[in-house]
Amino acid sequence: MIPLTLAAVAEIAGGRLHHATGDELVTGGVEFDSRKVADGGLFVALPGERVDGHDFAAQAVADGAAGVLAAREVDAPAVIVPPADPETHSGSVALAGDTDGSGAAVLQALGALARHVVQTLAPGGLTVVGVTGSSGKTSTKDLIAQLLEPMGDTVAPPGSFNNELGHPWTVLKADRSTKHLVLELSARGPGHIAHLAAIAPPRIGVVLNVGSAHVGEFGSRDGIAKAKGELPEALPSAADGGVAVLNADDPLVAAMAERTNARVVLVGESPSAQVRAESVRLDELARPSFHLVTPRGKADVQLPLHGEHQVGNALAGAAVALELGASVDEVAQRLNGLQRRSQQRMAVTTRDDGVVILNDSYNANPESMRAALKALASMSRGRRSWAVLGEMAELGDASVSAHDEIGRLAVRLNISRLVVVGERAAAMHHGASHEGSWGEESTLVPDTAAAVELLRRELEPGDVVLVKASNAAGLGVVADALLDPAGAKGATA
Q1: What are the φ and ψ backbone dihedral angles of 390, each rounded to 5 degrees?
Q2: Are 244 and 257 in contact (CB under 8 A)?
Q3: Which helix (H) or strand (E) holds 335?
Q4: In principle, which of 133, 160, 231, 364 could form an S-S bond with 205, CB 3.0–4.6 Å?
Q5: Closest Cα to residue 157, out of 139, 179, 134?
Q6: How many CB atoms lie within 10 A of CB 479?
Q7: Over 80: is that where the pLDDT of 430 sits?
Q8: CA 321, chain centre distance (Å)
Q9: 171/157 Cα distance (integer angstroms)
Q10: Using a CB cutoff of 8 Å and minimum separation of 24, what contacts does 343-348 make?
Q11: What is the pLDDT of residue 488?
C-alpha cells in the first residue's frame, strides 16, 4: 500500500478523525482480520455474523496498527465514516450481521481508498487487468499473474477474492513498485461489475465465457451476458490504450465487441481469433498441448494444468501478456511452467495405490461441471472412473433440468460410477438412471460422510475419482478423506 496519514484516509473516505491527530502513518497494508494486521497497518472494522470487528479495534492498534477504519467510535485512533443504507448499496456482497448499514459504509470507504491508490499509481505505469466470466475466472487470474510476474511486480488476489471486500483489499496491496494489478470481477446482479471496475479502472479486460452460473439471479444467459459486458464497457478507448480480450468461441462474448470502445483481441480455437490454439491434444492426465498462433508468431505449448477448458484460459492469458510486451516464445515458455495456485480447482493427486483424485470441489456450474466430466473421461481411458458430484447452486428455476442433464452427460461419457451427494442434487441421479441402461452405476447418498464410506469401501487401485460441487455443498471433505492414508486401503497420499 502507498503510505497515507489517517488525515488523508479521512479525506479520501469521507470520514472524520477520532482519537487521532491525523499524523498517524499507514504503511503496513489493510486488513479486516485483527490477527493479521501488520505494524503500521490499517484495521478495517466490519460487522460479522458472530463477531463485530469494532470490538477488536483497540487490540489491533495495541498490536501495531496505525489506526482503524470504522463506522462507529472505538477506543483507538480511527477514521469514522457515516452509516449507509445496505438496501441502496451498489456493491456485490451483503455482510452477514450488517443490520444498520455500518458494514456497507466501511466497504464504500475501502473502495474509495482503493480508487485513490489506482489513480495515484496509474500515471507511474501501473496496468490494471480485469477478468470476468461465468467460469474459469480464478484459474485465469492465477495464470495471467504468472505470465506477467517476470515482467514486473504483480499483485493478484488469493483464491476467489473477487467481490466488494476482496477487490479493494487486493488493490490496496499495490505500491509504487507494482507494475501489474490482476483482478477478478464477480457479479450477482446488474451493476456489480461496473461498480468494481469503477473502484479499479482496468486498461485490459478479459471476458472468458457466459454460462449458467447465477442464472437464478440474472434470469437468463442474456442477462448474464449483459452483466459481464459491463467490463468491456468500462475500458478506455483504443486511443487511450484500452484492450478487450474476448472469447471468439462464445457468441455472447464475441458480441461484446460492439459494446466497447477498446481495441478488441479475439482468442479461441475459431479461425477468427487473433490469438488461437490449433491441433489441441490431451495426454493421459488430460493436460492439453496445442500450437499457439498469434499475429507475432507461433509456438508449441504443453500446459501442466488439467482439462481441455484450460486452453481457452491460457489463450486469454497469452493475449494479455503479448499486449504488455512479452514475446511469443516467452509466453509459451511461461505457459509450459505454470503452477496451480488456488486450492480445490482441478487439483490432481495420485495415491500410492494408483487411485487418481481430481479435486475440483471449490465451485460448480453446468459449464464447469461438463468440463470436469470431460476431463475425467479423458483421464480414465481403460480405467474405472468415479464422478462424485453435489449441488450446483444459484441456478433458480433451471436447477432441476441442469442437474438432470449433468447426470445424463455422465452416462454418455461412459463414466463408470456416479455418486450424487445430497437431495439438492438428486436430479443428477434421476437423470443418469433414466439415460441408457444404467442401474446401480448411479447412487444417491444423503451426505458427504456416506459418500466417503461408499468410496472407501469400493474404490480399487487405479480408479480415477472426480469430486465436484458448489462450495456450499462441502465436498472438499470427500477429496480430503480420500487423500487421507486411512482411506487409501494402506496406501499413502
Answers
A1: -125, -170
A2: yes
A3: helix 328-336
A4: 231
A5: 139
A6: 23
A7: yes
A8: 19
A9: 9
A10: 343/159, 344/476, 344/479, 345/138, 345/139, 346/139, 346/305, 346/306, 346/307, 346/310, 346/372, 346/375, 347/479, 348/285, 348/306, 348/379
A11: 44
Alpha helices, H only, 122-245 = 137-148, 166-171, 192-199, 215-218, 221-228, 230-234
Cross-strand bridge partners of residue 79: 17, 69
Measure the N-to-C terminal CA separation of the chain; round to a whole number of Å. Answer: 40
Q: Cβ(91)–Cβ(195) under 8 Å? A: yes
- By the 8 A CB rule, do 156 and 141 touch? yes
Residue 361 CA to residue 121 CA, distance in Å, equals: 37
Q: What is the mean pLDDT of residues 64-69?
A: 96
Helices and strands (H and E) in the chain: how many: 17, 22
- Find cell 455422465 and name the residue: 410
Question: How many angstroms separate the Cα of 431 from the Cα of each of 402, 413, 439, 448, 467?
Answer: 10, 14, 11, 21, 18
CB 160 within 8 A of CB 226: no
The predicted structure's pLDDT at residue 486: 56
DSSP reduced 3-state for 177: coil
Element (H, E) at 376: helix 366-379
Residues paired with 419 in a beta bridge? 388, 443
What pLDDT sits at residue 212? 72
Let me know the angle formed at the C-alpha of 81 by 75 and 82, rounded to the nearest 5 degrees: 115
Domains and CATH numbers, the chain: 4-106 (3.40.1390.10), 125-336 (3.40.1190.10), 347-487 (3.90.190.20)
Is residue 290 within 8 Å of 245, Cβ to Cβ?
no
For residue 492, is pLDDT > 80?
no
- Residue 244 dihedral angles phi and psi, to the nearest 5°: -105, 120
Using N-to-C axis directions, what is the helix angle for 221-228 and 192-199, rounded to 10°? Answer: 10
Report whether 207 contacts 249 (CB < 8 A): no
Find the radius of gyration of the CA atoms of the chain: 24
